[in-house]
Design goal:
The chain is built from ten helices and nine strands. About 35% of the residues are buried. It has two domains: about 140 residues, Rossmann fold (3-Layer(aba) Sandwich), CATH 3.40.50.1220; about 80 residues, SIR2/SIRT2 'Small Domain', CATH 3.30.1600. By secondary structure, the protein is α/β, with parallel strands linked by helices. Helix 8 packs parallel to helix 9. Strands 3-2-1-7-8-9 form a six-stranded parallel sheet, with helices on both faces. Strands 5-4-6 form a three-stranded antiparallel sheet. Bound molecules: zinc ion.
């Protein structure tokens, strides 16, 4: 059966009200003060940066983004019996919230729904940390060792987890169809996955409003809005390649 790999970027979550924060044109890149809140060195060295960073996450969590039609279409593709894996640049967890099995999702930049201790690496739910902020702890320390907590995301100035990258690479090489959706394919190493997929024989489909550097390698380019284009594309694939 055909393995469909989907590389998703910020564009798949804009219909859920989540702006592009970390892309080349993202909000954080345009605002140096905001960028500090998500950059490793200032976060680790400055308690005031951490205090503001927790307040920002508290405000973000209150908004409570929901999956949209594109996330639901990916989950439906899995239910249809088509082997599918998602490699996402997003930290919002919306693929899983839409019903896709967590083990089918590789989160290149981690997840905002967990926190991790920078000293002992103990992990715990973000919700617990935010409850402590709510209760008055401006910069809640690790409950195990007292170390500095940070979201389980890859901040600017941090490297991608080599194991996560290796998982993404394996999926890319094994895929027969590789769909890059809502990503400008400008941030490495995620962008290079599109080229690697083609080198290994996959059909590349690009679903993105703007041109990408990999368009010329693509068998199909879709510029229509993701919320309608992706469900239509995946339904067609499911009919072509699915179990049924
Ligand atoms: Zn710790």
């Amino acid at each position: 059966m055909t393995l469909v790999a989907i590389l998703s970027g910020a564009g798949i979550s804009t219909d859920s009200g989540i702006p592009d924060y970390r892309g080349p044109q993202g909000l954080w890149r345009k605002d140096p003060e905001a960028e500090k809140l998500v950059t490793y060195a200032p976060y680790m060295s400055d308690p005031e940066i951490r205090r503001r960073s927790w307040q920002m996450r508290r405000a973000g969590a209150a908004v409570g983004a929901e999956p949209n039609a594109a996330h639901r279409a990916v989950a439906a593709l899995e239910r249809s019996g088509t082997p599918v894996r998602v490699i996402t640049q997003n930290i919002d967890g919306l693929h899983q919230r839409a019903g896709l099995s967590a083990r089918k999702v590789v989160e290149l930049h981690g997840t905002v729904h967990r926190v991790v201790c920078t000293r002992c690496h103990a992990g715990s739910p973000m919700a617990d940390a935010l409850s402590r902020v709510e209760a008055g702890e401006a910069d809640p320390p690790c409950t195990v060792c007292g170390g500095i907590l940070k979201p389980a995301t890859v901040m600017f100035g941090e490297r991608l987890d080599p194991q996560v990258l290796s998982d993404a690479m394996a999926i890319t090489k094994a895929s027969q169809v590789f769909i890059a959706v809502g990503t400008s394919l400008q941030v490495q190493p995620a962008a290079s996955l599109a080229g690697i997929a083609v080198e290994h024989g996959a059909r590349l489909v690009v679903v993105n409003a703007e041109p990408t550097p990999y368009d010329e390698l693509a068998e199909e380019i879709v510029r229509e809005p993701i919320g309608t284009a992706l469900p239509a594309l995946l339904e067609r694939l499911s009919a072509e390649h699915g179990a049924g």
